[in-house]
Amino acid sequence: MVETFSSATTPSTDRAVRPCHPADTVRTYLERGWWQPETIPDVFRHRVTEAPDAPAITDPANLADLTGAHPRTLTWRELDDHVLDIAATLLANGIRPGSTVVIQLPNSIALTAVYLALWRLGAVATPMPVSFRRHELSGIVAATDAEAIITVGALGDREIAAEALTVADGKRTVFGFGPGVPEHAIPLGDPVGTPARNRVRDYASALPVTVNDRITVCWTSGTEAAPKGVPRCHGDWLAVAGGVQDGLGVTPDSVVLNPFPMVNMAGFAGSFLPWLLAGGHLVQHHPLDLTVFFRQIAEHRVTHTSMPPALLTMLLQNDALRARADLSSLRTVGSGGAPLPPPVVRRWQEELGIQVINFFGSNEGVSLLGAPADIPDPTLRAQHLPYYGAAGVRWSTRLAERTAVKLVDVTSGETVTEIGGRGELRLRGPAVFGGYLPGTADTGPFDHDGYLCSGDVFELCGEGGRYLRFVDRVKEIIIRGGMNIAPAEIEGLLMDHPAVADVGVVGYPDAVLGERCCAVVVPAPGATVTLEDLVTHLRAREVASFKLPERLEITDALPRNPVGKLLRRELRARL
């Protein structure tokens, strides 16, 4: 394993920096050039050196409405100073290499700078959406044994830092940005002066660092009742980012507008890290507000962004809305999370001159994208992805040749090779993570050959079997506006309601969000159940708003198999 050491004295630390992969795996990736020795802080330093006075990042235009803070734009040099200011405060308050810090911030300069500050100190970021509440926050703090929480004083009508203090319970430090930071939390982000910045520089230069050091624990939910922690290292993230950068074509002249929460694969790989690799200007957006979104595209002459499939369709169907949106600067739009309608992708390219890229990814390391260079036909690109395992085919992204892929029949266990055959997508390579956070998953996600079992079923198609077409999920989850909802988690909470005898939670189609959450309830004898009752019950347990049921169906019995497993497909068919 290649390591980067400074000749300065190594800072002492009470926490061990955790690796993500076995040493022999890391050695292989480095020897083959699939990983490089440099870390994300190294990449950031390159950007600061190359273009110190170029605009680097801009806050959401509505930040004042969100947090009370004034939105601003920083150059690369100014961003570096802001990172040092944050790191100095964290360092002075006990954050060290290996420390795990929970982050709950909206897309902003602050969120971006916090990541870079933590990684400069060798600490681990475990981000969560701002929509999470005490129920989710307390679970993540406990699972990671986090030492601190970083958030904002206020978020809309929520006193979010005060919420974090109740979870911290005096045992963990709470840091807060912006107005409204309560008395027992530590304000973050103010300038600290040159001596404190230099202390951070000296401290960071003496840290022993490897590309295999854990830097994030993101969270993903399947059908299990609790989310699973996904540790990632520098090498993992940079491998993913390199492949996405190739497909998007991000350059130092690009302006990237990021509407997805920068807490997992979508935000990290879709915007944050390709921007960091290439340079350019990152414009943050939060939450999705079409008026603000379109204004940002026009004002900043955005070249790259992401949109859910429903929004792509809506823009084509609504002439008045499209007339108010100046999209003339846009070159590329990434989309995913739901099937893309082929006519929509074709019309975006032919009528608007904008390429739509089909993304398919997961926190664990699935990273497939239909780049125009690989699939020029927009109609074909809408529903197909490159099959990296296709013999004799060279793809345009560097990640393709470094990733081994196969489809495995979920019943027989045989590898699928026939055109039209279907199987679970399995893959291994430098973008795949090393395994779940201990205690957050019952089983490992790898097969006996070391391939990641994605849980997603694809069909092998195209000439020579060169493409994949998504069919279904092996495990059932609900994806509402890009956020995953584990039905079993909500079912477990609703079963505590005295009027509920049995309950099944499933998704139902929605034109804007993709899916919404429906609770199908068998009432207790003599009881009456309303949707308002269920929502109130969940809110009392401080469950995130996006997980709340938005539809209620009453039934006499739920469909179950002989061993009592809920038949979700049959339940959805009823809806």
Automatic annotation (TrEMBL):
Q: What keywords were assigned to this record?
A: Ligase
Domain (AMP-binding enzyme C-terminal): give its ranges.
489-565
What terms describe the molecular function in GO for this protein? Answer: medium-chain fatty acid-CoA ligase activity
UniProt keyword Ligase, yes or no:
yes
InterPro entries assigned to the protein according to its UniProt record, in alphabetical order: AMP-bd_C, AMP-bd_C_sf, AMP-dep_synth/lig_dom, ANL_N_sf
Q: Where is the AMP-dependent synthetase/ligase domain?
A: 44-437
Q: Biological process GO terms, please?
A: fatty acid metabolic process
**What family is reported?**
Belongs to the ATP-dependent AMP-binding enzyme family.
PANTHER family, per the entry: ACYL-COA SYNTHETASE, MEDIUM-CHAIN ACYL-COA LIGASE ACSF2, MITOCHONDRIAL
- Identification of the protein by name: AMP-binding protein
Organism source for this protein?
Answer: Nocardia aurantiaca
